[in-house]
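Notes, p. 3: input format for complexes.
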Amino acid sequence: MKKSFTTRSLNVPFPRVDAHKALDMPVYETVAYEFDSSEDMSANFRGELPAHVYSRTSNPTVEYFEQKIKALTGAYQVLAVASGMAAISNTILSVCKSGDNIISGNHLFAHSYALLDQSLRSYGLEPRFVDTTDEQAVEKLIDENTRAIYFETVTNPQLEIADISKLSAIAKKYNLLLIADSTVTPPLIFNGRFHGIDIEVMSTTKHISGGGTSFGGLILDHGSYNWALNPNLNPLAEKFGKDTFIARLRKNYFRNTGGAMSAHTAHYQILGLDLLELRFERSYASCIKLGEFLSQHPKVCRVTYPGLKGSHDYDLAASQFNGKPGTILTFELKSEAACFTFMNHLHIIRRATNLNDNKSLIIHPWSTIFVEFSEDERRAMRIQPTALRLSVGIEAANDLIQDLELALNSLD
Ligand SMILES: *Cc1c(COP(=O)(O)O)cnc(C)c1O
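Output follows (412 residues plus pyridoxal-5'-phosphate):
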């Protein structure tokens, strides 16, 4: 029988036996590593003797975090980086060049949108934003300069879900790379390898870090894409074959842009990963209870959580995410003023912007994350002045419900 996620996570062997037989992976907080001889040193630089050399390119604690993710997901290659944005930017830079275009979901994490729309556009990469739940619209945008389709498994705060099997079929038909940001649906409940996703990127700052402890990102290469099909990588593909993408990262963008994960961060991420299942299952169970409570409350106009029976996208959440589409829900009150009053009356749920902390966090997206956009733009992005986003933490569900109830009672 297949062992549980937690059992497997706790039992991934170290890449090397530790000198002191440490049971937890030590934090290798060092910049450089010594060689026994100048011959060994030269052999390493010629690529003939693998070893850690300089921690911006590889580090034993970070390597162990990567090995754990590899063992848990079956990914072909894994690279841990400094943040979710480092994972996304390194991935896109590695597969696109100026003159190319990338088809992207139109509802994205705000900085991912800005990366494509502002930073990379200025280098000649054209983002083509589209509703990825509309496969025909996606297909229409493809031309000979398209290199990839990029989307998020569950959009935030809209909580929309694209049918990944349809996106994957389009990507295969046109030999395009399919990249998913799976931050909201961590490896415990979603494995892109089984859904036709070639490259998975995620911010481990959220679910994996273990409660808002540290920034981190992951790039997972599922080994499914033929890199010779991408003209930018084709020359490398002759030499590196299946390892083309990881070689491009490790010998070019990742190394040269300096977005390495630190050993201390890797330590936090390892601890967080070992406790992911416990934390996630508890938050998920509370998410359902809170969703049901809010749905029945007369002062709440609408609740969105695709894990709730009868909700839009329930079937896709069931087939793609084992019925557990993350631990974020949104709900609407009668007015923006009611949202502010409600938030000010909470005592356990905290007013903060992160996701998947151990603490439950609430935010009014209209007046915060999206405040730089005009009202029309916000509505076009399906951001409502009456909506609140709640990231459900690991407090007891009854305590959270009581907090919500008291704050709802403060409304007239
Ligand atoms: C937070 C987040 C990111 C960015 O991650 P950082 O670790 O903050 O750089 C990217 N995508 C999604 C969906 C996120 O929620």
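The chain is about 40% helix and 15% strand.
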